[in-house]
Amino acid sequence: MLMLIKFFQLRQSPVSFSRFLEKEKKDPIAALLRAHCSNRNEIKILAYCLMPTHFHLAVEGASLEIIAKYSSDVLNSYTKYFNRLHNRKGPLWQSRSKKVLCESNEQLLHLTRYIHLNPVTAYLVNKPEDWKWASYPEYMEEDVFLPICEFKNRLDLRSENYAFFVNSNIEYQRKLAEATSVNRVGSP
User: Fold this and answer.
1) Structural domain includes residue 81
2) What whole-number distance in Å separates Cα of residue 177 and Cα of residue 23?
3) What is the distance between the alpha carbons of residues 88 and 46, in angstroms, rounded to a whole number?
4) Which of 64, 115, 155, 160 is the most buried (most CB within 10 A)?
5) Could you tell me if residue 187 is inside a domain?
6) Are 7 and 43 in contact (CB under 8 A)?
């Protein structure tokens, strides 16, 4: 999924994703990073988190149409891959994707915190740095096998300040998630 997220940022993919993987069997990540050096799309990934049943992306794009096409390409390609891998047919995603427009950098900052705390809120891990399928390590300036995010020109962060900002909200986000799930279950 991470490779798909990166692959479909390319302005014009030379081949389909499956053909790209076949062609670049030895080191697809290096090939993907090389392709990104000269062939950028109008899509920037600002934050992400892959969860067992869903994922979150904070995306910046030149237009809503470009973002919609990007999302469609990623979702459809992953569905085809997953269905082939597991010898199944049909849709993989249960509901439509939800979109939220960030109108300020402060709102974006809070959105990234929500995204990075998602596995903690779901009690999958105790700390965001323990979840390897999110952009939190990039925000902490750690080495990652596939850098995806382009937030540094958009958000002015110091990793230690951002870590405090995220970790200080763990209990509040967990309580909020519990309250909203109780309301959803209990409502008619």
Assistant:
1) yes
2) 44
3) 32
4) 115
5) no
6) no
For residues 29 and 34, what is the distance between their CA atoms, to the nearest angstrom?
9
Phi, psi of 149 (to 5 degrees): -80, 150
Which residues in 20-173 belong to E strands, given as ranges?
A: 43-50, 55-61
CATH classification at residue 114? 3.30.70
Asked, for residue 62, whether it belongs to a domain, the answer is: yes
Amino acid, res. 58: A
Number of compact structural domains in the chain: 1
pTM: 0.84
**Residue 10: inside a domain, yes or no?**
yes
Q: Are 30 and 146 in contact (CB under 8 A)?
A: no
| pLDDT tens for the chain, residues 1 to 188 | 998 898 888 776 667 777 777 777 777 777 777 766 666 667 899 999 999 988 999 999 888 888 988 898 899 889 988 898 899 998 887 777 788 889 999 999 999 999 999 999 999 999 999 999 999 999 999 888 888 898 988 887 887 899 999 999 999 999 998 888 765 544 44
d(CA 9, CA 55): 17
Q: Look up the domain containing 172 and give its range.
A: 2-182
